[in-house]
Design a protein that fits this description.
Helix content is about 70%, strand content about 0%. It is mainly alpha-helical and about 575 residues long. A hairpin with a 5-residue loop joins strand 1 and strand 2.
Length: about 575
Amino acid sequence: MRPAEAQRLRAVLERAAALVARQRHGDAARLLGVVLRAPDLPSERRCEALRLRAESWLGMGMERRAWRDLSALLQLAPGDPWARLQRARLLGRHARTEPERADALAEALAIARAHPDLVLAWRVAEELAGNQPRMGLQAEIIIGRARADHRDVDATCRAARVLVQRGQHDDALVLLDGCGARRPADWRRLDRCRAEVLYDARRIDALARILPSVRPGGPAAARWLSRAWLVTGDIDRALRVLLEHRPATPDPEYPAWRLAVVELYCRRGELDAARRFVEAAPPERPPGPGDDARLVWLAARGAWTDIVGLADRPWDRPQSRVLVAEALRRCGPSDGVKEHLAAAQAMVQVTPPPLLLNRLMVEPMDSLAQACAEAFAPMLDESPPEDGAARIAWLRQRADALLDRLGGVRDEVLTWRRRDGTIGVYWPRPDVRSAVAAVRQSLTSLGLDGTIGRYRTIQNEYLAGPSIHTYRAELCLWRGDLDEAERGLRRALALDMRTRWAYIGFAQVELWRGCAERAVTAISDAERMVGAMPSSPHVLAEAHLRLGNLAEAEKHCIAALRHRPSRVSA
């Protein structure tokens, strides 16, 4: 091609690209059709024209014509990432079977991994992935898109939250610092996300430094900001944030806002101020935040008999369940204490220290005593005994006095009045059981191997605790690594011979090995040592089913469903 003709061709292609950019797709397609009919068109220019015309067809929704141009383009340039992505997108949109969709997604992911800075690749992968529950897949896509597009604030904040779920707080902060946001509103959103990362990482000093730049965007955001100020120890600022962002009374956020205000006043010991908000609304049916606020105020006053009178209401807040159980334990009747505490435990991911201490009063277990001793350490005038039984007795003797100093609040953050009149604030780290359960929640973002690896980190942080080994052993069972699962279960029993799930785990290992009779024997031997185990019926049901004992299997299925009606396996 002569230089003059090449220059004219370049000008025509530039004009076509401008038409595509202005979304004049019809004009661009007609112009490119003329170009592509030229007999001596160089291969490079033909590829460029095909790419532009395919983009025009896609812009007009003419996918069949776009497919033809994409196929022609890929014959000339098989590795063209844009054409491969658009073809994968079309295949995924029109896939009739799950394998076809999976192939389209695999193609998009392969391109994204090969070209990690190509934003379009991650967008197409995200579109094709949809809501697929495949472990680790969506997390990889969300993080990859944010790292590729440094100016997308939404993608950056989403990726930062995924990294937090994976325990990668430093990576989340690096990602937020690298976001090239240009508007002040976006800067504020990034500051809020940084504060959330620091809050989750429990980096109190850094959180206190960034909080002055965080602005609440509404009542719910104000409650979170108030909570963040509270954990930094500034209870006055926490209350001021709430009072400065009071929602209107009909606002659906008002009851939760009022509960937060009542809790802060009770933490400060200002019960008259709390009473004004408590009595501002009549009792709710079913119980709502207004009734939860009344329970907190009654507990702060020590009116436990009044709380007993409200015990039969269907409380759905874990802190309220703890207060009701505590009132029943203190005043009687004691029936229902364990049930309320079990219900509260099932509602929380991180067990609040007051719940641990109330459980210790009815379940004298050394693991609970150890967790309580660590959580309440700043409130204790002396260290508890090292011996397990002595430590349990020592803490149970002081339990009610410790709980009375909390101002009726029974959540994760402990506040109490010191001897010098100042208010102490302590946010203890989660107990080991809550920590390992939280890792389980990140299974979908970490994947199976990543979650098993995270348990090693937890083990280094907490050193002891049989639940670390039992949770990890269960995941090893899912992976089919029976020997490693068995080793983990033995480590758990070496720490505490009363670890019930370890015995359940041994029975499941026997089931996986095809030894149903040995599984039944393992459960029977364990229950003679540690008593009845609530999780054993579903294991026994499966074992008897494999042995052909249908009547016995049905009996254990019924027992398993009675213990947990939502158990799918039963």
